[in-house]
Amino acid sequence: MMQSGTQRVVQIGRPYGAFFLVALGACDALPGSRYPDGGAPNDLHRPLVRACTTEFSFHPDSAVASVSVAGEFNKFDQTANPLTLGSDGTWRGHIALRPGAYGYKFVTDGNNWLLDPNDAYTKFVGDTENSLVEVDDCNRPQLKFLSLQKSAGGDAELQLQYVDGHSGAGFDSKSLEIKLDGAAQDAPMLSAEGNMTVRAHGLTKNKHRFVVSAADRAGHPAEELHIPFWIEDQPFDFRQGLFYFAFTDRFRDGDPASNLPLGELDDRANYFGGDFAGVRAAIEEGYFDALGVRTLWLSPPNANPDHSEPGSDGRLYSGYHGYWPTSSQTTESRFGSIEDLRALIHSAHARGIRVLVDTVLNHVHKEHPYFVAHQSDGWFSGDGTCVCGAPNCDWTAHALDCWFMSYLPDLNYRNFDALRAMVDDALFWARDLDIDGFRVDAVKHFEEAATRRLRSRLRDEFEHAGPLYYLVGETFDGDRDLVNHYVGPTKLHAQFDFPLYFTLTDVLARGKQDMYALENSANASDKFFGTAPMAPFVGNHDVPRFVSLAAGDVDEGNAKEQAWKAPPSPPQDEAAYRKLRLALTFVATQPGVPLVYYGDEFGQAGSADPDNRRPMKWSGYSKFEQATLDHTQRLGKARTSLRALQVGDRKGVWTENDIYVYARVAAPDVAIVALNRAASDWSRKVPLPSGVTIADGTVLHDRLGGNDVTVTNQSLDLHLSAQGSALYAP
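Below the sequence we write its predicted structure tokens.
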């Protein structure tokens, strides 16, 4: 049966598995591009001109007799566009295509239909997913990024190239506009080849952006070129610090004038007044710096309905959480304006902190303009009668098409227009607000084409000068195979490590499993996820608070009702806080990007949603809460200063039922983490295993405030207090 598909190819000859594939946009400049009208290379206004053909290239890993390309442009005819075998073993061909988005596949030996293995972009044609090539108007000129050199001292040199449109209208020098952080720059001269150099000096340590626009003499505009980049002392890595979820509405009220709760609701389901101004104030006061936070995650910033909706329990809720979007590019007024969010991001960037926003790709609210305009033309799955979890609408069987609630239409990404629109809307926050990535909600409930397109568009349009973004997904599941399925070079960078979280709470909060189980779970995550910068965590907005679990105060069989009728008070026994500190120590010293959910840094109490979303407590800490906050700050400081914690491999050192000692090793740097969950002190001379080498006589300091230890005969004489932890490093 004929298969069909589409993908835009953006790499030339890059190996992917056993294949090589090239498909250049139909109007890209190709080797041998001509000068128009016989113009000579030294003619200042006659640079290279775009060709109006698309090159398809395929390199099989074994001999084939024929290769052709079949797509929407030839009605998926496997004989219409054969490729020619070159001396290098690569099959190539050129096709003249009109502007548009085309699905295609390669066909080998007449009947083997293959996706382009070198391109992440896809498009469904009917129910079949295919590779995608997107072709623009070849009469438009192009601006091409060549290089960016920068220094920690604040110098930057940008190299660009202008390529004329196919009509050869010539470069309009008056149209050239270059802005740096919104300020106009002097236009550089264009070389004979269309090259230009832009220089800047005295840039602050911050995130900056060049924006370049130009047109030809016929008025054809080139696509605007955005080149964001950082000036900083060392290249940034998201693993260098803690990752913090500042749940916007419940975090901090910085602008009481924007407080507009819905009058008919219980306070726990209503807006509390947290806003962008409150998060910004915490940034500027150094709250996150003290915690060692280098990345912030904000709730979805989009506008939500101005009325309540029933939750799964039948109670009425507002959209304080942000997951009922009624707009794609407008902020929720209760959180603040676009300008308020931009100011927050600017304040974070001035401190080197990256900002992620939550993006909702699975659904919109019924009031969203997309549903109003497209509810009957294939943008959405079904008619809302299949609500997830209802009879005849199983969560798993209908994972991709059920509606979370009857007022949340589920997007159908087999419709390319819907796919393109939703990803374009996500890119708005990167282009116009300068965010640094996304937390992607409900990943397993929509087609992977969406996250692949999002990551690829971010890369192709903004990451000219190197990696900038972090895409971390939520797949609420204990199956590592499933969680890992959505992570990869062309997929999400990472996901939240729910499988590890489930074991962590069993071992350290409930005491249902021993420390061997925690070690095994950590090793399993290493094996499954490899070098992906996964996000381990102690808690989030969908699970009961860890300290309440540790105190045994959560009615786990009825937590939702408990949240409303008998929410737990803060524990009065320090044991629960000690368990939380153990969990925080474990998470903060794991590979990846460790997450702290607002309030967990001191031990905020709570059962299930909405009780796990209480307003942030900013003062009046108990002595147990203050001790926990101090502990978290020490962990954050260690994370930001110890290379071994940031990028080191994990190696087991010693494990017992109640003891787990492990090392993080990034030679020559080593950090030793020791956890004791027992209710009594523990002491032992622990030998360092192979691969954990520290010179005898080295003094290791406990970064959590305990006593130093000295390496003697490749052993450590460890002493841990009851339910205590230590973090040793030179």
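The radius of gyration is 28 Å.
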